[in-house]
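Hey, I'm writing a tutorial for new members on how sequence and structure tokens pair up, and I'd like a real worked example in the thread rather than a made-up one. If someone can provide the structure for the chain below, I'll link this post from the tutorial.
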Amino acid sequence: MGAGAAHGVDGMTVGVRATARIVARADGRGGTALPVLDGDGPLALRRIRAHGDEARVMLVGAMSGPLGGDHLAVEAEVGEGARLHLASAAATIALPGQAKGEARYDVRIAVADGGELRWLPEQLICAQGSELYVGTRVDLAPGARFVFREEQVLGRSGEDPGRLGSRLTVRVGGRVVLDQELACGPGAPGGWDGPAVLAGHRALGQLIVVRPEFVDAPVEARMLGEGAALVPLAGPAALVTAVAPDALGLRRVLDEALAILEPARGG
């Protein structure tokens, strides 16, 4: 799908529209094929060396942004028996732009029975003056496997945060196992920086792991250090939520949590 700047009736630029789309299918030879790998503009996709039967794709930011008024989207579909690892080459930085309105970044994911998707992007940074809304919708078959890491940083080093709104919805077999919304930064409802939410921290994130074996052996709820918690979700899912003073501390906590939830995985 192509990308381009949209224009209002007065000829003013109102933001970039771009969608990257990935479809993964079992290739019948024990590997994973990518019949659709389509993205341009600020969302370039690059296939990198596979790891066993797992296809690997890197999302490369070819332009600055998202800027105010931009609408970017990533769509990933994984078929039965296919395995896909999706990552990003660098952090995404939301910036204020000339166009009015917030930027929007949507992620749409679907994984069939026996399929697996690991979506492990770098951090999303909301620079001072930016306005960003992130919407993520995940639809998984009952026998799908899924790993999703989301890391959000409010402001670059030494600057005030931008405004961030997000909604994450995960369904397994059509059943909602997680539906949560977050708003923080200037203009967000009061209390977002208080002790009940971020408690003064500027990095927040979560890790979702869906494995069919969690149905019979759900994870046990526990604290993971001072600023993170692991909880079971309905069905075959587990959620880690964390806050930290900075991006480095947040990544360390989420990496440790992933090692707990996937102890037998190597590479």
